[in-house]
Structures are given as structure tokens and as C-alpha cells.
Amino acid sequence: KSGFISIIGRPNVGKSTFMNKVLGQKVAIMSDKPQTTRNKIQGVYTTEQSQMIFIDTPGIHKPKHQLGEHMMKVARNTLRETEVILFIVNVAEEIGRGDEFIIEMLEHTSTPIVLVLNKIDLVHPDDLIKQIEVYKDKLNFSEIVPISALQGNNVDKLVEVIESYL
Ligand code: GDP
Ligand code: MG
Questions:
Q1: What is the C-alpha to C-alpha distance for residues 149 and 118, in angstroms, rounded to an integer?
Q2: Which of 13, 48, 63, 124 keeps 20 to 30 A from 71, CA to CA?
Q3: pLDDT (tens digit, 9 = 90+) per residue, 37-78?
Q4: Quaternary state and partners of this protein (predicted)?
Q5: What's the CATH code of the domain at 27?
Q6: Structural domain of residue 79, as residue ranges?
Q7: How many domains does the chain have?
């Protein structure tokens, strides 16, 4: 099994930390250069069963008013063309404008969306449950997976979830 995974989320939610945790020494490609005009390969993770190609989606992190029609289309096309979308948020913070903007972008996307609640090491379990309730109402996520990218909690579970969508 092989497939592309879009990683999206506002700055500082832990996207890079997650990538580093998953890829570890298995990094095949780590490049800041755009591979094409529409996306940027962050890394490739290969196991016996599967190959996961993680890509960054330029444009999706920008506030809506700064995005032209064309950029919006490019971002949407990229999201459509990947097998899974990983939407990473910081569970230790209230949902913010940046998150809401991304959620708006994700509406009407047929690609499975996995909501990753990162930084669970910073929240009380009761607050984690509250956050799950908040996000659940915002969009019809395929899965909601709480992790700590920094400490590595549940990261292997998230990899399994991704694998199941390839
Ligand atoms: P990015 O901008 O989304 O790529 O975010 P980074 O991966 O650069 O992380 C931003 C900050 O959050 C860094 O200081 C990380 O160490 C921290 N961070 C990332 N994941 C976690 C986590 O699971 N728990 C905690 N406590 N901090 C985290
Ligand atoms: Mg980063």
C-alpha cells in the first residue's frame, strides 16, 4: 500500500515535531524545496506493508483574505489528490481563527480527514474530552486521534490509522 498524506495545521501545532517523530532515522527525503508548484514532500515513511508520502500544502495556512482564487483552487486540488488529510491542532489551546479557517477549507472535501489532537501531555484528560466535543461539532472527521508528538504518545496508533486509509 502506498499513498500521499497532506499535513495541515496552523503554525506551532507540532507538524514538524510529528514528522520528526515518525520519520526518525527512516527519513528518505527531507527537502524544503518545492517538488512541484503545488506541493512539497516533507518525508517518506516506508514499512514492510506500506509507503507514506507526507506532503505540505502551501496556501492552506494563510488567512482567507490573503488567498487569491487560484491559490485556493491549488490548495483544494492538492487536498483532493491525497489519500488522507492529517489536520493537526494544539489541544492545549482553545480552537482559534486559524483552525476555523482550515476547517472552512476542508468543508466539502471528500478525502478522509484525520483530526490529530496534539500536545495531550499538556492537558488534563477531562479537558481532552471537552476538546473532542468541541471539534466533533465542527466537521465530520473520519477519525480523531489524540497524540503527543513530543513524547511520542499514540504516534504509532496514528500511523496505523493513516495506513488503514491507503
Ligand atoms: P509546526 O510549526 O506545526 O511545525 O510546530 P513544531 O513542530 O515546530 O512545534 C512547535 C512547538 O511545539 C515546539 O516548541 C515543539 O517542541 C512543541 N511541541 C510539538 N509537539 C508537542 C507536544 O506533543 N507536546 C508539547 N508539550 N510540545 C509540543
Ligand atoms: Mg514546522
A1: 6
A2: 13
A3: 445 777 889 888 899 999 877 667 666 666 667 777 777 888
A4: Monomer.
A5: 3.40.50.300
A6: 2-164
A7: 1
